[in-house]
Amino acid sequence: MVLRFLTSGESHGKCLNAIIEGVPAGFRIDKKFIDNELKRRQVGYGRGGRMQIETDTAEIKSGVRHGVSIGSPISLEIKNKDWENWQISMNTEPQDLSDEAIAKAIAEKRITKLRPGHADYAGATKYNFDDIRNVLERSSARETTTRVAVGAVSKLILKEFGITGFSHVIELGTVKTKTDTMSYDEIQEKAEGSDLRCADDEAYEQMKNAIKTASEKGTTLGGKAQIIFTNLPVGLGSYVHWDRRLDGILSQALMSIPAVKAVEIGLGTRSGEEFGCNVHDEIFVHNNKISRKTNNAGGLEGGMTNAEPLVITVTMKPIPTMRTPLKSVDFFSKEPIEAHFERADVCAVAACGIVAEAMCAYVLANAFLEKFGSDNLSEIKSNFENYKIKTGTH
To answer: How big is the chain by its Cα radius of gyration, in Å?
Structure first.
């Protein structure tokens, strides 16, 4: 692995942090681009009150000089504006519990009610907590903010070589989009202009109504987002070991996103419904280059990119925190109760797509640097150009 990253921070703590190791020297690290990616994560019809509180921006703390990477670890910090309301209950320093005001503030934020669909039960049991808030604060999807920042840096690496990606919502509840006749450019343009990242105008109105219905019922809604990356070279990844297969690495990265329950590459589950002659992409030569007329494989064969667009679909379950809570129990008394409710979204499939973009970008950037990498941008470009000439793909 060339790139690696770690994140830290709690949902209502002081800040979120990311440290990215392995970024070669010479890449332009554009803060405005990173901040715009963070903004894209926060947009979406059906999002909750936290999006009105926070306007996420990243502060680059190290690894960059005058806007250019210098080869050392890049650290990013994203402040939580809501921290001002949680300074006692989430303080990292020991608190004087003999002070009634302090004890009351901490007690008010203590959680004992288990929430079905969350990490509460397993997490509190595993770490022997007497307050489920310790689980909630880190297992919260707020953590994905740092992933988007890391993904933004990864996108800036890929961008130097003409590799770009985007996401769009293709399904929300039972509503499905119809975009088969649209080009990727058309889909991307429509998605970027939609607060649901939906490229189908008719489906958009139906999706919006579905979210309204869910909100009125006090429940939530899930769906599917598709991620597409284009202009990838042939041969990223490998078939020689199970843990180097790019489809497996991508799937793990995407399944690690909170609420993602399925990952499909290319034709996905429909591959099992068709004869092989209708699934596998026939190979032709056009202008002396290998080409395909279909892309059912989604750009991956044998654990490697095949130069076709990477097409991946992620399925996000409905958010398990609901205004109309499910039946549950108190973790400590074991008495039946209604699940704890804390501010949450009604639907966040569009945001999930942005996080999925980020995780794909990170995996692809790592695979790219593994194949063509060096200590600096100039040598990597030279390696890449030589590869394209040698393979006849330039």
So the answer is: 23
Task: Please tell me the predicted confidence (pLDDT) of residue 49.
Answer: 54
pLDDT band at 345 (very low <50, low <70, confident <90, very high): confident
Q: In this structure, is the dihedral angle defined by the CA atoms of residues 129, 131, 137 and 139, taken in order, positive or negative?
A: positive
Print the domain residue range for 367. Answer: 4-391
pTM of structure: 0.95
Residue spans of alpha helices (H) in the chain: 31-42, 50-53, 100-109, 120-127, 133-139, 144-159, 184-192, 201-216, 246-255, 349-372, 377-391
Whether the Cβ atoms of residue 26 and residue 332 lie closer than 8 Å to each other: no
- Which single residue is written with the structure tokens 């925190």? 321
Query: What does DSSP say about strands 64-65 and 68-69: parallel, antiparallel, or unpaired?
Result: antiparallel
Q: In which order are the strands placed within the sheet that holds 74-79?
A: 4-8, 15-21, 74-79, 59-62
Q: How many domains does the chain have?
A: 1
How does pLDDT run across 212-226, given as a tens digit for each residue?
A: 999 999 999 999 999
CA distance 391 to 394: 8
- Give buried/exposed letters for 143-158 (b at 16+ CB in 10 A, else e): bbbbbbbbbbbbbbbb
Instruction: Please report, for the domain that includes residue 47, its CATH number.
Output: 3.60.150.10
pLDDT digits (tens, 9 = 90+) for 25-78: 999 999 999 999 999 999 878 766 555 556 899 999 999 999 999 999 999 999
Question: How many whole angstroms separate alpha carbon 228 and alpha carbon 197?
Answer: 13
